[in-house]
Amino acid sequence: MMKTALKGAVYGLIALAASTAVADESAELVINGETEIVTRADAPAHLDGALSEVTSGWLYRSDETQAMQMDDFDNPGMLAVEDAMVAWGTAEGTENKSCADCHGAAEEGMAGVRATYPKWNDNAEEVRTLAMQINACRTENMGAEEWKYDGGDMLAMEGLISYAGRGDTINVAIDGPAQAMWEQGRDMYYTRTGQLELSCANCHEQNYGNMIRADHLSQGQINGFPTYRLKNAKLNGVHSRFKGCVRDTRAETYAVGSEDFIALELYVASRGNGLSVEGPSVRN
Amino acid sequence: MADNVTPRVRVPRDATAGEVITIKTLISHPMESGQRKDGDGNPIPRSIINRFTCDFNGQNVIDVTLEPAISTNPYFEFQATVPESGAFTFTWYDDDGSVYEDTKEIAVS
Question: Regarding beta strands B19-27 and B75-82, do their DSSP bridges make them parallel or antiparallel, or are they unpaired?
Answer without folding.
Answer: antiparallel
